[in-house]
Design goal:
Elements (H helix, E strand, L loop, with lengths): L2 H10 L9 E5 L3 H4 L8 H5 L8 E4 L1 H7 L8 E4 L1 E2 L12 E2 L3 H6 L4 E5 L7 H17 L4 E4 L10 H14 L3 E4 L5 H6 L5 E3 L7 H13 L4 E4 L1 H4 L4 H14 L3 H10 L11
Parallel strand pairs: 1-2, 1-10, 2-3, 3-6, 6-7, 7-8, 8-9, 9-10
Antiparallel strand pairs: 4-5
Helix pairs in contact: 9-11, 9-12, 11-12
Bound molecules: ribulose-5-phosphate.
The site of ribulose-5-phosphate (5RP) has 15 residues, from strand 10 and helix 10.
């Protein structure tokens, strides 16, 4: 792996060199969902959470308009789009942000959704593969978002298949969902894997999910709604961080969430 690629990968997932997990904070939902609940005023929600996230996954527009320019947080820039929640099929995506723009925006990695089993599977696989060619020319890591779409059966068989295809195509990081037998997915996926949180869960369940994933080999989380939709997002991201960075049990992390439930700003815990 070349120096630039390795260095950027370690910035995006800073837990990698020392074997702990990392907290990537996903706030890209609006690129097809519009003003998602909790992100109606993106800057107001996101800025207090920045000190507690290791990296930020988002679209070009929210980066430019809602993230302070002087932040040091590594950026994972979503570069695929092409549909909205108003359409039945969400898989008709293509590369919509150039590598030059990603570099101009100082992205540390780029993210692209592949729709394995979806109507536009072929298109997204080919576009993803071309993105890997271009991004790697500049030492820019590529994160494959797998298993997105309305009707996907998110079981081990499907998630392993989608994740492994992403690796075979050249992904440097795979984003997928947690499932029963997740350790088997990890064994078949020789690049770092991060999990999405999915729809909002009760906080204790979301922390259990993060715990299960890192215990079974995930390199961390790339969670969104389960961080910014709870009543106390600052407390929640710190609890998730406790699980991922410090190996807190789900109960210890939930207690941490409850004791900080006012959502006040707290110093970063590491
Ligand atoms: C959408 C995405 C989102 O970033 C992803 O779903 C993570 O967010 P959440 O934890 O809310 O599911 O990639 O395509």
């Amino acid at each position: 792996m070349n120096w630039g690629l390795r260095n950027r990968l370690d910035r995006v997932l800073p837990g990698l060199p020392n074997g702990t997990g990392s907290v990537m904070f996903a706030i890209d939902h609006g690129y097809f969902m519009g003003p998602t609940s909790g992100l109606e005023d993106p800057r107001k929600t996101i800025v207090p959470l920045l000190p507690h996230a290791d990296s930020l996954m988002l679209s070009r527009g929210i980066l430019q308009n809602s993230i302070p320019k002087r932040t040091n947080i590594p950026i994972v820039l979503r570069v695929s789009s092409g549909n909205s929640i108003l359409n039945e099929d969400l898989s008709n995506e293509e590369l919509c942000v150039s590598i030059e723009d990603a570099i101009r925006l100082n992205a540390s990695a780029v993210a692209f959704s592949i729709y394995i089993g979806g109507a536009y599977e072929h298109q997204t696989i080919v576009e993803f593969s071309k993105l890997v060619n271009d991004a790697h020319r500049y030492g820019l890591p590529v994160l494959a978002v797998t298993a997105v779409g309305k009707d996907m059966n998110r079981d081990l068989r499907y998630l392993s298949l989608a994740s492994r295809i992403a690796v075979e195509l050249g992904a440097d990081i795979v984003k997928t969902y947690y499932c029963d037998g997740f350790n088997e997915l990890i064994a078949a996926c020789p690049v770092p894997v991060v999990i999405a949180g999915g729809k909002k869960l009760p906080e204790a369940e979301a922390l259990q999910l993060a715990h299960n994933a890192v215990q079974q080999g995930a390199a961390g989380v790339d969670m969104g709604r389960n961080i910014f939709q709870p009543e106390a997002p600052v407390a929640m991201i710190q609890a998730v961080r406790g699980v991922v960075h410090k190996n807190l049990s789900p109960k210890e992390a939930y207690d941490l969430y409850l004791t900080r439930e006012d959502g006040d700003e707290h110093p970063a815990d590491s």
